[in-house]
Every structure is written in C-alpha cells, then in structure tokens.
Amino acid sequence: MARPVQAPDRPTLEGAGGIFSLIATGSAVSRAELLAASGLSRATVTQRLNALLASGLVRETEETLPSGGRPTRVLAINATSGFLLVANVGETHIHLAAMDLTPAILSQTTLPISVASGPDATLKQIGEAFAALAAGAEKTHGFLLGIGLSLPTPVDFKRGCVVGPSVLPGWDEFDIIGRLNVGFSVPVYVENDVNLMTICEHKRRVPTVEDMLFVKVGTGIGSGMIAGGRLFRGAQGAAGDIGHIQFLSDDAPLCRCGKFGCVEARAAGWAIARDLSSRGFRAETARDVLDLVEQRKPEALMLLRAAGRTVGEVISDVVSIINPSLIVVGGTLARGGDLLLSGIRELVYQRCLPLATRNLSIELSTIRDDSALYGAAHLMLDDIFAPTKTGELLARYGAAAASTHPQAPTRATTGT
Amino acid sequence: MARPVQAPDRPTLEGAGGIFSLIATGSAVSRAELLAASGLSRATVTQRLNALLASGLVRETEETLPSGGRPTRVLAINATSGFLLVANVGETHIHLAAMDLTPAILSQTTLPISVASGPDATLKQIGEAFAALAAGAEKTHGFLLGIGLSLPTPVDFKRGCVVGPSVLPGWDEFDIIGRLNVGFSVPVYVENDVNLMTICEHKRRVPTVEDMLFVKVGTGIGSGMIAGGRLFRGAQGAAGDIGHIQFLSDDAPLCRCGKFGCVEARAAGWAIARDLSSRGFRAETARDVLDLVEQRKPEALMLLRAAGRTVGEVISDVVSIINPSLIVVGGTLARGGDLLLSGIRELVYQRCLPLATRNLSIELSTIRDDSALYGAAHLMLDDIFAPTKTGELLARYGAAAASTHPQAPTRATTGT
DNA sequence: CATGTTATGTCTATCTTTATACAAAATGAC
DNA sequence: GTCATTTTGTATAAAGATAGACATAACATG
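Structure tokens for the assembled complex are given below, as produced in the milestone run.
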C-alpha cells in the first residue's frame, strides 16, 4: 500500500485557497481577522498561512495596526508574485500595460489602431505587444496570471466576445479568447470599457457602496451599474446602454444609430461638436468641445449645460428604475467642471421622487485616462482570487516552488 | 475531564445545514446529487441525511427518477414539518394565510382594512388573525418558521419598515418587526407587494431566467426586477418605481403624486378610469376598466391599447438600462388579453436596439390573486433555508425531537 | 428469470481539523 | 521598568471527515 508520499515535511498549499482569497480581496488583513473570517481554527490558519508565506504569494508588510496590545501584523498579497496583461482598445489607439497585483502599472505602450483592419490583425498586434511587455515583467514578477481586454462596444462577458455591430467592424462574435490563447495559456477576460471604468471607480473610491451608477459622457454616452456590490451586465451584456434612449420632440436630431432623438444625438460630445460647428466653431470630438469650454466660449458653456440637463433627464429615469445611492459622472466632458454636473443635478432632483434622492449623491469622477486598465485588473484579480478558483492557482505556485527543488518537472494543471 | 456526553447513539443534526439547504432549495433531489453538490463524502452525507430524515424535516418521496439502473429516490423537504404566516395588505383588504413549506396555502382569511386606522391598530388585527391561523396550522404542521408581510408601498427590506409617505398613512418608519414580534418570536419579513409578485413569477414559472422584469399594471403601475437571479431592490428599496417616470408633453396630465406627465397619470387603471369617466362611462378602479374592456366598449379598448404604448415607452427605457431577457406583464389590466401587451411590444421593438430585443420575450403573467403571498413564502423559505442559517433552525428541531424522548433537557445553542 | 446498471449503506484505517490550554511576543499606559 | 492587553505560535487529545472497497438494493431489459 506504499503510496507515493510527496514531500511530507513541506507544508502543503492545498486548502489554502480560502485563506488566500480572504487576503487577496482585503476581507482580512491580519491573522486574527483570518481566524474570525475563515471560521477555521488557529492551528489550521497558522499552518495554511505558513504555506502561503513560504510560497511567496503572501507577505507580511512592515505596517502594523495599533490594537491596544500587541499590534496587528498586516498581511498582503505579494504584488510581485504575478502580473497581468491588459489592453484598452479605443477608437484611435490601443493602450497596453503589464500590471502587478496591487494593481499598479509596471510598464505600458500605446499602439495606433486602424479600426478597419479587423480583429485578427489587431489581436495579432496586441499579442506581439503583450509578448514584449510580458518578457519585461517576467524577470521580476513571476507568472502571467491573466489577460484583460477592454473594448468600446457591448461585450458578452461570459462568452468573451463582442455582441452586435459596433464601431469595431468585423469583431461581432469573433472568438477573441481563442485568438489570444494561441500565444498565452492563461484566462482571457473581455469586457466593455464603460463597465471597467465603473469597476475602477467602485473599487478604488467607494468600495463599500452597494448600488451605484457610473455615467460616461464623452464622444458617446454610456453607463455602468454596480448592483448589490457587483457589476450588473444584463442578459446580453448590454445593460447600461443609455445613449440611445429616445426623447421625442419636434426638433429631434438624427442619431448615428439611425433613430431620432436619442440622448447621444442631443448631448454626446459629437452632438455638441455638431452644434458648435453649425455656429461657426471648429469642433469634431469631445476633446474639441472641452477646449472651447475651457476657453469659456459662451456657446460652448451653454451647450454643455444643456447637455447636462438632457443627460439628467435619462439619469432621472435610471434613478427611478434602479435607485442607486451614488452617481459618478466621468468621461471627457465631465472635465468641464461643474457645468455638466449642475445640469444633471437639476433634472434628477426635479424629476425623481424624494425617496430616491434622499440619500443620493451625484459626483464627478476623479478622472484618469487609464481607469479602464485598472478596472480590468480589478475584475481579473477578483476572479482569479475567488475562493473557488484559488485551488488551481495555488497548485501552480506549489508546482513552481517544487520545481526549484531538484524534483519532477511541472506541468500546467489548467484545462484547455 | 468527564464532559457531559449527550446521547451518543442518536445522530446529530449539527452540520446538516448544508445538506438540508441543498434539498430545500431544490439544488439536489437525490443522495447521489447531494454527494456531488455538497462535495462531502458518502459516509458523511448518509449520516447527516439520516439525521434529517429522523427529525422529520426531510422525507423520501414515493417518486423515483429512472436512471438506467436502480432508480433514484427523490428527497424533499417535508412540507408539513413547519409553516409560515403571510399577509398581503392591500388598499381595501388584507389577505392572510398559513402556508406549508411547499409552499401551498393551508388556510386563509380576509380582513377589511381601514387605511386610516394606522399601523398599530392594523398590525394588532393582523396579529390576532395570525394567531387564529397559527392555532390551526400548529396541529398538523409543527413549528411556525416565519412571518411575511406584503405592503403596497416602498419598503426597506433590511430594516423591515416602510420608507417614505404612501397610501398607508402613518406607516413611514414604523417598527413593524418589533410590533409583530410581540406575539411571535420568529423572523419577520416585510417587502413591497410588486417585488413579491416578481419573486412569485420568477420562482414558479421561470426559475432559470437570470434577468427579468415584472411589470404590474393595475390601479397603479410598478415593477420588480430579478438581476443575476436575485431580486434587485436598490439602495432604499425603491428600485423598479417606474410609475412616476415623466414624459412631458403639452397635454401632460396631473398625477396623484403632484407632478405632471407621469406614466401612472397616463396609463394606470385610475388614469384610464378618469378618461372613461370624462367620456360618460362609470369607472373608478382598474377593475371597472377591465369590465368595460370585457364588454368590448371601443373607447375602453382604445384607451387600454394606448396605455400599452405608454407603458411600452417606459419599458423600452428599462430594457435599455437593465437589458432583461424576459418581461412579464401582470396586474389587473393585464387580464384584458393581448391589448395591453401589443402596445408594449410595439414600443419596445420600435425603441430598443436590436441587441437588447434579440433574445427578449414579453409575456402576460399567469395571473393569480395570491401571487404576493406565494412570493412572500418563497422569499422567506429561501432565507430560512439558506446554508448559513439552517444551523439554528436544525438546532430547534433537534431540541424538539429530544424533548419527546425521556432524556436530558436540551438547550438552544443559539445566542440572544 | 438472469443480467447489466446505477443507487445506496457501511466498514476501516488514515488524514484533517478542532478545542483548549499555555507560552511567547510586541506594544501603550503608567 | 512594570503591567495590562492583544496578537500570535505550538502542543495535545479528541472529534470529524475521507477514500475506497465492499455489499446490498432496486429497477429495466431481454
């Protein structure tokens, strides 16, 4: 009955997933908290934590929290024990980065994109840039743990593909995961950019808020929702698509979607640029509009404020429907200061029932160009470090740790 | 070190919560499925299941599922091992029932309600009626497990109280749970009636649908949402409040909320009744409108169809925002056949992007007057039988079972 | 009625986890 | 410096859970 006993003295990583997940998600920062949060016994927690510390995945920070007695030693995921590759595909450029587990950007590149070149060529470009970034990151940050792709279109997150026609011709239903897995054998996550900005906003600024709405007002208009603390995607991943809600009127302008009176056609960057152009200004994108606003041109200020009221009209509908406790307004036009915001506030407080606005705050985003990248990283880390999934992850690290010993070669345990 | 060993031969219910929950929620119907779903070993499952069977909480049905070999014995919660008390407070009547764990109605009563009498008097009435129902149910159905209250107003489910002014004067912030706990020491659940109808519709008809919308078109208009398989309540429990979304126009009618142009003021039962009255018909409630529709009065038919288009306008907004895969239309006016539905469909398919309507179906509710009661029962059972909560429940049953033996008295292990 | 097939109960040695107690460590308050 | 206080590690016996083999049960099929 001699079974091949494997390294009986080395503590095993098996079963440490729960502990690891608690640390990774920030649910527990100290051993004492781990005890309480995991429900396991002191001895078990100590044993598993030691395995994690030995593997290098978790480290003890220098930071301590005063507690009246012996201070708490703060535990944290070792940010250098792995890295992620993320890419944000925009309409003109692709922003790529390698990120550690903080998450923070380790290195980044920008590629020009020819929208017309289609998914296959574009993903090839991305794959090559990823390979270069990975080569640098691997030297100091161990394994590649996942790949994230941010796209400016509706995405079916579960299947990992674009759904419906969009600004990216040829991407509809294209097998992105399959294409990227050719070069990398790690999980690939694909998500809509506004959803990722929503996650970034939520995770980094107001992680305790349960129900919030993020509205992006840029060249186009879109939104993302956190419902019950989690991103809400809807049946096809099209939830939050508020840009093409219609308000009919006699002068309803034609939208780029082919309908009349959409919110976008009234208040998006391209619509304001259109109106400014007809008044003799030179404007095409949201950026141009913002420039004119910053020059304090009265027409631009007026149109931005009016756009705020239009967006406020839709947002008031959204507030009635999902009853958030926080609305964050971001995107290029949100940098125009409080003009957009005041228009939004005006309509929301006018239209919604007091119950819904009683505890509602409406704020400007702390804008960052790379919020989609951070959002993607958070999304990935949450999934990679989910309690049910840490098993295979730790198996990989365990295998790697073993291979540093003069032992059997390792093999990835993940399927497909 | 002699510790008081308690009945070493009798299997313990401790730890059986997970098993019980799997059976109660229908996640596993046989021993084989329990094995797979729980991840526990065969011996452990057998032991715990035996404890549950011995306690009478779970029973083996006569039903078997063919499997090619020895057929699967189907397990089920013993519907007679406990009961619930539920009450649906309407604007004119209160419908009360004792329900078993199927859930099915065991016995029921109806009380008239004087809206003006306030929460204290009304809850006293309800408490007395509950006591009578409980007396009957206790003879055959063991313990009372929980109390559910359905109210026609926005409710903060977590705190268990009405929020905001409503058709029930004096109920705002009233401590309902505290009041009902005077007579009964079981968990009390308070929820909005439309949310409960949504749960009923979801659980009984389409339990696998992840994202759906239920719209009630009766004397008023409201909606409930299932997002990611769970009821979505929003920050204050006011999610789904679509009745007072405004559509401005020159002839915007005055709403009972004080604003102009609300959906309710255009399409609710009371609004149609108002329009019919001005055309010489005698109508006041949704019921009256339905009568005229069933008499095929052209004016009533026309107005109902127009109402459908108005409701369709809001619903199209909701579809853009939350992207459900199913919309169920219920309420009194939904009994008017396809008239309302066709108006809704017309607008939704006209207004929404193809992506959102591609897999969307819009159906009539299988109407039942008591769907709020059933919804309340499902809501309660899901919570009472949640894996984390079955521990104390089983402790109670264990105590009851022990006290029937001539043994040492048992003591509840739960705190407070 | 024999056979194949799947479901279910039970046994045993082995491994995990727990409870509990005790000891050591690291700080602030005095 | 001493003391109270809280965090953290470890040792021990007892309880709990597992794997995996085996036996039995209950049906469909031919």
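Residues 298-322 of chain B form the longest helix (25 residues). Residues 17-77+381-404 of chain B form a domain with the Arc Repressor Mutant, subunit A fold (CATH 1.10.10.10). Further analysis is deferred to the final report.
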